[in-house]
Design a protein that fits this description.
The protein is α+β, with helices and mostly antiparallel strands and about 375 residues long. It is built from 7 helices and 6 strands, in the order αααααααββββββ. Strand 3 and strand 4 form a beta hairpin.
């Protein structure tokens, strides 16, 4: 008989362990992709909501950093565009200068051709005159003065033609040299323009990549927001199934410590390892307030796992409502914990609670006491 009872106890204990492992495994599977805190999460979907919000916050930081990078890339693109505009303006000026020099070179060449024609005619005339001997030129002159004038005229014409040809050739050479310098400058400026264009294209590619990343993060943030809204809607529906209507109730929030209530939800950890302004944090405080001791259940389960935690610690549980007990609703992903203030003869109970509205607020309501699991800490 003793062995039978021992085997039954072992089976019961084994079943509890398996149940706890299954619940833990289920929680891990449903929360896949998120970093689960070792501390207790309180209400249904709160862990998922918190992780989604944390993920969105991290992605928003990435978006902000990418925006800074995008602004930097855009600033560099604008700076390069200013340089490109300046170089292109210089290129246009030098192209106009080159074209003007080419026009002047052509004019010089035309003038040179004209002077060569004149030179040919003058040489021909001089040649004809040159056939006359100096003695004959002297004989045909009225006097010596006329002879000297003819000789001087011929020499002067020849010198002028040579000077004109030299001047035109010098001008042409100068213009060609200037044109060569301008063309070299144009080549340098075109190369610079190509380099600036390549740098700008690189910055544009970086900007495009950054904008794409930013858009991806923004899309993920929107998806997280949609998931959070859906989770809140599901949790609100689970809470409404408890029945009753939440009331503000005790202005002192059921005695819940003000340092925990005044702080932003989930910003502090209470003495039992719970996030502040969550349902389990409130009920843990009520147990401590009423009985002077509350087990440290941080990291040991959510609201709907409290009954198993209680059984493991030898704390009795049951389905009969009792004032001063903790009522657990198993609805939703994480369940909901409430403190039983009073029990009525019609089977209804008066409870106080935290975070029924998913906003971390204290409330009270009267609900049907059936279908709940009660933990008797006294």
């Amino acid at each position: 008989m003793f062995m039978v009872k021992t085997k039954q106890k072992m089976k019961t204990r084994k079943a509890r362990i398996i149940q706890s492992l299954l619940v833990a495994a289920s929680t891990a599977v449903l929360a896949f992709g998120f970093v689960i805190s070792p501390l207790v999460r309180a209400d249904s979907f709160d862990e998922q909501i918190k992780q989604l919000q944390a993920d969105s916050n991290a992605k928003q930081q990435n978006v902000n950093q990418l925006q800074v990078q995008a602004d930097s890339y855009q600033g560099e693109i604008d700076r390069l565009q200013t340089q490109i505009n300046a170089v292109q303006s210089q290129i246009r000026e030098n192209q106009a200068k080159r074209d003007d020099l080419q026009t002047k070179i052509q004019a010089a060449e035309d003038e040179l051709a004209k002077q060569k024609v004149l030179l040919g005619e003058n040489i021909k005339a001089v040649y004809v005159e040159g056939q006359i001997s100096t003695l004959e030129m002297l004989a045909s002159s009225k006097d010596l003065s006329q002879f000297l004038d003819k000789q001087q005229y011929r020499d002067t014409i020849q010198q002028k033609i040579r000077d004109t040809l030299d001047k035109i050739n010098a001008l042409k050479a100068q213009l060609k040299e200037q044109k060569t310098e301008v063309e070299k400058l144009l080549a340098d400026q075109e190369a610079m323009n190509q380099q600036l264009g390549a740098a700008q294209a690189q910055q544009s590619a970086l900007l495009s990549y950054t904008e794409d990343q930013k858009n991806q993060f923004t899309a993920q943030i929107r998806a997280n927001s949609a998931s959070i809204a859906d989770l809140r809607a599901q949790q609100a529906a689970a809470n409404r199934r408890l029945g009753g209507s939440a009331e503000a109730g005790d202005p002192n929030h059921g005695g819940y410590p003000n340092y925990l209530y005044a702080a932003a939800q989930d910003s502090l950890i209470d003495p039992w390892g719970m996030y502040n302004r969550e349902c389990v944090s409130y009920t843990a405080w009520k147990v401590y307030q009423a009985y002077g001791h509350m087990p440290y259940w941080g990291g040991r389960g959510n609201a709907n796992q409290w009954p198993g935690d209680a059984q493991d610690d030898g704390i009795p549980t049951g389905s009969t409502p009792k004032a001063g007990a903790v009522a657990i609703s198993m609805s939703g992903y994480y369940g909901h914990a409430m403190w039983v203030e009073a029990v009525f003869s019609n089977g209804y109970i008066r409870v106080s609670q935290m975070n029924y509205d998913l906003a971390g607020h204290y409330s009270e309501m009267t609900i049907n006491g059936s279908g709940l699991t009660y933990i008797y800490f006294n």
